[in-house]
Amino acid sequence: MQKVNVRQERCKQCGICIVNCPKEAISFAEEINLNGYRPAVVDNEKCISCGNCYTICPDWVFEILGEEN
For residues 26 and 3, is the Cβ–Cβ distance under 8 A? Predict the structure, then answer.
């Protein structure tokens, strides 16, 4: 189940989310978005839906969907 929605078109590859993820669940995609950046991607196996990425991101890239029930 997807725990975080990533709006890849908004990502500017700043890396703040990667540095602040306690589970190292975020990395950069191999693909380039329409703005020329490698957007963030979330590994849902590692993600704990803590919300750090949502809180820290200056470009509102992340939407927290929550834990699987």
Answer: no
Percent composition of the chain: helix, strand, coil (DSSP 3-state, to 5): 20, 15, 65
**Contact, 4 vs 56, CB < 8 A?**
no
Coil, strand, or helix at residue 36? coil
Please state the pTM of the whole predicted model. Answer: 0.90
- Residue 52: give the domain boundaries: 4-64
- The per-residue pLDDT for 68 is 56
What CATH number should be reported for the domain holding residue 44?
Answer: 3.30.70.20
**Position 8 in a domain:** yes
